[in-house]
Amino acid sequence: MNRLSKSALENVAKHKYSGIDDSILAKLILQKYWNFCLRFVPLSIAPNLITLTGTITILISFFIVGYYSPKLDGELPTWVYILSGLSLFFYQTMDNLDGKQARRTGSSSPLGQLFDHGCDSIVCTLQSLIVASVLNYELGIMPLVQTFTIALLPFWMATWEEYHTGTLHLGPINGPDEGIVIIVITLLATGFLGSSFWVIRPLESFNFLPQIISGLRLNEIVISSLAFPTIITCYFNIKHVVHHLQSKNKPVLPALSQILVWIIITGCSFIWYYTSTLLLNENSIWFTNIRTILFSIGFIFGELVSRLILAHMCHEKYNIIQAPLIPLLLATFVSVLNYYRGEVIFSEYILMIIFATFSLVHYSLFVKDTIQQLCSYLKIKCFKITQKKQN
């Protein structure tokens, strides 16, 4: 059990969320829309219930898209594209209404912040796989590149910055606001254009370009173009943390070393992918069950992010190597061993079942234990408003 110390619980009780959203789109349009939607939310609805509703919507969309596109390719029914776009927009709405509802009802709590961001971390992986199917990525390296660099990296860096500076700072153009709206428009547009639109090669007529560039599909160009703003965002995350720590005369290197968590997750995943696919080709579980593997890794990432948020609230040190990483490290080791032996010593399918089960169960127990301890100490309920309403 993830038992929090008395001092940790005391620090959590004193914690106050600090966030800055400089989004241009949010200030001009989205905030007005969210405030309008808030009028239709009964005062009796708990903020965490709003958060959970949005998350379940994405989960449903994930399974529906996966049913029609298990290998991240092919044409989907038009209604599935529309549903995936509307589900994401609904999720974004719920993700912003929960905080407004908490302040409106006087039920804000550290648990709400942890629950909200914990759900967000899981949705990152789910939505990345939805996009991979809609944009017709097919099996291969592209789903991994998008998931680990475009989705998980900026989320980890933003949470890491919050851990050290105490404030979650979203820039003028950011993922949770502008990024989600762009994805929603893309998903809806695909319903009319078809997913085959994303596999055209728009640069192939430019003979002066190197073949590696002229042969790029449109979806590959999109992913490549998204890498640039991601790098810029991560640069500013690091810059803000370094400046903050230096102003406090605190060492910088220990903080930078925590980025190793994302590097370990990403590195192990890519090593596992390459050793498995080089040995087994199309029989690799990365080709036959890629959604299961990435979904399971998403649970590992979600727990590690939640632990980072919790460590921030508790004012505790965050260790790089933690229990959630163990199944990924072991699975990677087994895959490397199979590869260098040139034969399957341990069944990949059984490995995947054990890996997925451990990831899900370990994350579920962490969530249950943490919620129970925080609710007990703060004298609140997770899905019910217990504080006096404030209009």
UniProtKB/TrEMBL annotation:
Instruction: Check the UniProt entry and state the signal peptide residues, or none.
Output: none
- Annotated membrane-spanning segments are 49-70, 76-94, 141-159, 180-201, 221-238, 259-280, 286-306, 318-340, 346-366
The record's Gene Ontology biological-process terms are: phospholipid biosynthetic process
* Compartment(s) where it occurs, according to its Swiss-Prot or TrEMBL record: Membrane
Q: Which GO terms describe its molecular function?
A: phosphotransferase activity, for other substituted phosphate groups
Q: Which family does it belong to?
A: Belongs to the CDP-alcohol phosphatidyltransferase class-I family.
The name on file for this protein is CDP-alcohol phosphatidyltransferase
